[in-house]
User: Fold this.
Amino acid sequence: MEKKVEWYSDFVNENYTPSKTDLVVLFYFEPAKGVSVKEAVGRIASESSTGTWTTLFELPPRMKKLMATSFEMKGNFVKVAYPLDLWEPGNAPQLLSGIAGNIFGMKALDNLRLVDVFFPKVYLKNFKGPYHGIEGLRKIMKVRDRPITGAVPKPKIGFSAVEHARIGFETWMGGFDLVKDDENLSSTSFNNFYKRVELMTKLREKAEKETGQQKDALINITSETDEMKKRAKFLHDHGWRYAMIDVVVAGTSAVQTLRDVLGDYGMAIHAHRAMHASFDRNPKHGMSMPFLAKLMRMIGVDQIHAGTAVGKLVGGLDEVQSNANILREIKVKPFKNILLEQDWGKIKPAFPVASGGLHPGLIPDELKIFGKECVLLVSGGIHGHPRGTRAGAMAAMQAIEATMEGTSLEEAARGNRELKQALEKWGHMKPV
Ligand code: CAP
Ligand code: MG
Assistant:
């Protein structure tokens, strides 16, 4: 008789009903040639929980209780339930090492995609969620009835701190709320972080005085973690209410640490998602953007880039709307094979950020997709205005106002020179 060397089928139970405290993951999978569906889903559950490739000599009884279970196979989708005790409370990196770890490299699968995760209440309670959330940020910025607006000086890196701050000032003066650093700008020989912050602080005061509006900035602190803490304190000492982190490259551990540090200062986190497309762009493999957004809301960012659907970067309408739902809703409804149900309980809603290739002519599309509950970043689309940054920001603000009033941009352009000039340059083109 052939000896049993593997125990993958022990991790599959088509009749399993998850308990209230199970974490449930929705995966898309494609078995490799010669691997049955049952073996494939058994391996997913096994390698991401207690299993390994072979049967073992010693198995304490506890093991049984810690095994994950694959259930509900529908075509190429399967759900896997993980018992709560597998997970260290409040440890986001450990979660990823399990549900998003070795399993992506298994030879038994041609493709595997982590689509979404349902977090039980007891698991969520060890994470802080956003410090301010949507309501808190609206209060700070004193902006109620329209999206919060911002822009990155462009080109994205190369300006000196003085040049950068001057462009920031023009952005604020054109009516924008926020000036944002670009993802690859941190502290360079030509644009030192500390110098940039000092200059921006002076010009923020001037812009606030001249406009009577609240102004702020999303200044990028991404760096080694101790240095990030230092930069966070420096921002706080200079009266800034936000800090920006490239959350994927910095990693969940650093984001958790900074959520604590910034929370103690009463500051918000702007999350840039640079590098996300390395694992979410291929629809058959990797991890989905809605799940990244969910993970970051759980850890506690106040806003995160969510795509535009019409701008220069990938991310279709279903994905963009799913990102927005996962970030804004208290009770997220299941949607196609993209979202699982999720009750966020006490975790505050976060803003989706629309960014990437936007200009005034695309603002009606963005407001249709997101409504007013978003942050709109229009960068190249203001600095490329024929009369410069300030006029560009004015044009974008005019486009927002017109759209919110239900007026077409063409009609609004008759009384607004800046918008008229923006439309003459870009019309409603969708950049690629
Ligand atoms: C936008 C941007 C952002 C992208 C990121 C850029 O500038 O600053 O980093 O929006 O993409 O460098 O491209 P533009 P996403 O407005 O000039 O395009 O929001 O999809 O993460
Ligand atoms: Mg950028």
